[in-house]
Design a protein that fits this description.
This protein starts with a strand and ends in a 5-residue tail after the last helix. Helix 9 (about 275-280) links the parallel strand 11 (about 260-265) and strand 12 (about 285-290). It is built from 10 helices and 13 strands. About 30% of the residues lie in helices and about 25% in strands. The chain folds into 2 domains: about 1-125 and about 310-325, NAD(P)-binding Rossmann-like Domain (Rossmann fold, 3-Layer(aba) Sandwich); about 125-305, Dihydrodipicolinate Reductase, domain 2, CATH 3.30.360. It is globular. It is of the alpha/beta class.
Length: about 325
Amino acid sequence: MKVAIVGATGLVGGVMLKVLAERNFPVTELIPVASEKSVGKEIQFKGKAYTIHSMEQAIAAKPAIALFSAGGGTSLEWAPKFAAAGIVVIDNSSAWRMDANTPLVVPELNGSVITQHNKIIANPNCSTIQMVMVLKPLHDAYKIKRVVVSTYQSVTGTGVKAVQQMDNERNGIQGEMAYKYVIDKNAIPQIDVFMENGYTKEEMKMVNETKKIMMDDSIALTATCVRIPVMGGHSESVNVCFEKDYNLAEVKALLEAAPGVIVQDDIANFIYPMPQSAYDKDEVFVGRIRRDESAANSLNFWVVADNLRKGAATNAVQIAEFMLQRGFIA
């Protein structure tokens, strides 16, 4: 099976290569794609060198599937061209997520929305993925009315430039700024651009994508997204109000049974999710699960996941695996 990675030299692209190798996805030929300045250079995959292609060269090579992680503008322009050539595109940008004809997929939750006719499938936002992995089993049991979420997001979500900015600041080096402000020893309450309603684009992604994935527009959700100087993953403080009351032990049992979710909730031994312990793992970790004593039928929890893996690369590869298992790609 020929597999293209569009954005192969970026942070997420690199993790996609790693995840494909780790999960033994049946790649017979890799077609790495990057910007024009990288075309002709080589990258390594499973001990073999592969030459970086241009977009046109990648389409001409006729891969069965293309994993895109090269930004929304690139996806808007090129995903339809790949799809027109019969290539299945799994896109990690925000370009196609809210398109009515494009499935927005977390395989453990709603893989069934994919059909053999879909040529573009959208990977949700990293902060959305980890939250809905926990919300969906609870929604099925108790029916969610409202969610209030505050995120604490890793610099890796911005990309290589942001990681370099933080490293430069920690080492007293002047360099290129990925953010408007210093990130080290700071918290920046802005991720992506501001919208007319005063929310950022990242915050509205969480609102709109959650409703689409969970197929329920009645869920009220409000978000505040913050960039903090950490590596390893995103953290979220989530408050949920249900229509029905719940039993706390049953909540924990539901989450322990949820595919891809690991409960770390032992406060007596100071065990709870953290970015350092979630780093390089594919699961979503949830802890600090407790009743909200200020409101009826309400729950608080803390959820952490590696944003480059389950929040991006791993989820995309899992979509490809899902389609392969069902014979939608070959």
